Amino acid sequence: MPKVLISDKMDPQAAKIFRERGVEVDEITGKTPDELKAIIGEYDGLAIRSSTKVTKDILSAATNLKVVGRAGIGVDNVDIPAASAAGVVVMNTPFGNSITTAEHAIALMFALARDLPEADKSTQAGKWEKNRFMGVEVTSKTLGLIGAGNIGSIVADRALGLKMKVVAYDPFLTPERAQDMGVEKVELDQLLARADFITLHTPLTEQTRNILSAENLAKTKKGVRIVNCARGGLIDEAALKAGLDSGHIAGAALDVFVTEPAKESPLFGTPNFISTPHLGASTTEAQVNVAIQVAEQMADFLVSGGVTNALNMPSLSAEEAPKLKPYMALAEKLGSLVGQLAHDALTGLAIEVEGAAAELNQKPITGAVLAGLMRVYSDTVNMVNAPTLAKERGLDVREVRHDREGDYHTLVRVTVDTKAGPKSVAGTLFGNASPRLTEIFGIKVEADLDGAMLYIVNEDAPGFIGRLGTTLGEAGVNIGTFHLGRRTAGGEAVLLLSVDTRVDEALLAKVQGLPGVKQVKALGF
Ligand SMILES: NC(=O)c1ccc[n+]([C@@H]2O[C@H](COP(=O)([O-])OP(=O)(O)OC[C@H]3O[C@@H](n4cnc5c(N)ncnc54)[C@H](O)[C@@H]3O)[C@@H](O)[C@H]2O)c1
Ligand SMILES: O=C(O)CC[C@@H](O)C(=O)O
């Protein structure tokens, strides 16, 4: 039974779903990094919100970990390259808290427009300062959206409902999408010059860090009000403070800070500054949504291999997973075969599918070929880290899908580019379930690739098989299965034997010394 640790406070629905789906679950929150490191080795999955930091150091101790699930959107608390290198899938729940966060941005915009927190404080202090508080309407004002993805587009929709004009800066926003959303796509400088309110909805990246820098804040309209419910670091906090102090910025509301938890900040106490402690996603509805989604996704992955909303591997639906499973086993064996036989001086490879295989999602098949192939270089390779390793080695990976059906109803072919030219192996599924090799380097051989095997290339000549059998028998090696193929009678032949014990170097040398043997190699699957 797979075992998951929930390490941040999460709605109880998550644990309930894990258990219902046959996943054992522990809920242990508030651990220090060292405490987490001490226990993480027990778990196949780690379900987190934003408090747990999944660092390289934690991952180094996570010897059984297969998946990290983030109940939320931002994954800046997960070292994704390190997780990928460790073969750990990282998933998030990209939509579960979008409405809630968009509503928080709108709430903060209204709070700024009418100075609600200060008016509340003054009223509850018995001051009744009716003439002190003079707000602004949002109707007819211009809202500048920085980032128009899931949350930005919901904010735009709500703002249009409030009769605001919405301009958006997002380099990835197409003109068609902008039109559908009813917003005007603009450049950043135009947005800064025109917006009465600015809300931010981008991830924190090298391009977005300090997108509201001192220089850009100076380009804003006097009296602008700014809301950030996305990520700390998008605004230069010192420059924001200066803008508020000078009166150029009429108000700012931050849900997120450069350093969190933000126990102190020069912004605290600044007039017209409002803050919330990263509450964007904190509604009952959103927390139930993300807890259910993360538990379902992680359980699907751990129980049936389905991959949804993964940030470091292609998606694979729970319906597709059972159909693809035998293909992935076949692909991994073919990758492993070419890896073991032809990994020297590999520069690239093509993965072709035809027949029934061509109707399936090809990405997981490619991932499995690469995992099999790259295992020659490292034991810890799996479908998550294999593409990165292949890229690091400069391998050019091509995917080809053929509509045609050849000799087999379904076929996967892997062709590697070597110094000696392209070399290819192919395989099919028998009974739609059992992986079977059909061809090796241009020679037709049908074989199961399983356990310890011996690959021999020899000159096709009478008496060879007898001599080989005697040599192996004298060494106490029992032959399980025997598969023979040849290019032409009397030409080059290929033998694939499954053997009950792995053949050692001394015996390999003896086989290599038999007359007519061109190549011999011990294989393992
Ligand atoms: N405060 C919270 O509790 C809370 C809750 C949920 C999400 N978030 C954060 O909100 C942010 C937005 O989430 P989302 O779900 O809308 O993400 P999303 O991926 O759907 O949208 C992000 C948008 O930013 C755009 N973008 C990327 N680089 C940009 C750049 N240089 N300039 C302008 N736009 C750029 C992208 O094209 C995309 O449209 C994320 O940072 C997320 O972590 C915060
Ligand atoms: O889990 C939370 O409370 C915050 C989530 C939010 O930052 C997100 O990116 O989804």
UniProtKB/TrEMBL annotation:
Domain named ACT: residues: 453-525
Enzyme Commission number(s): 1.1.1.95
Sorted UniProt keywords: Amino-acid biosynthesis, NAD, Oxidoreductase, Serine biosynthesis
Alphabetical list of SUPFAM superfamilies matching this protein: ACT-like, Formate/glycerate dehydrogenase catalytic domain-like, NAD(P)-binding Rossmann-fold domains, Serine metabolism enzymes domain
PROSITE patterns: ACT (PS51671), D_2_HYDROXYACID_DH_2 (PS00670), D_2_HYDROXYACID_DH_3 (PS00671)
Coiled-coil zones: none
Involved pathway(s): Amino-acid biosynthesis; L-serine biosynthesis; L-serine from 3-phospho-D-glycerate: step 1/3
CDD domains assigned: ACT_3PGDH-xct, PGDH_4
Sample GO molecular function, one term: NAD binding
Record's keyword annotation contains ATP-binding: no
The reaction(s) this protein catalyses: (2R)-3-phosphoglycerate + NAD(+) = 3-phosphooxypyruvate + NADH + H(+); (R)-2-hydroxyglutarate + NAD(+) = 2-oxoglutarate + NADH + H(+)
InterPro entries in UniProt: ACT-like_dom_sf (IPR045865), ACT_dom (IPR002912), ASB_dom_sf (IPR029009), D-isomer_2_OHA_DH_cat_dom (IPR006139), D-isomer_DH_CS (IPR029753), D-isomer_DH_NAD-bd (IPR006140), NAD(P)-bd_dom_sf (IPR036291), PGDH (IPR006236)
Top-level EC class as recorded in UniProt: oxidoreductase
A GO BP annotation: L-serine biosynthetic process
Function of the molecule: Catalyzes the reversible oxidation of 3-phospho-D-glycerate to 3-phosphonooxypyruvate, the first step of the phosphorylated L-serine biosynthesis pathway. Also catalyzes the reversible oxidation of 2-hydroxyglutarate to 2-oxoglutarate.
Recorded family membership: Belongs to the D-isomer specific 2-hydroxyacid dehydrogenase family.
Protein name as catalogued: D-3-phosphoglycerate dehydrogenase
Organism: Sphingomonas chungangi
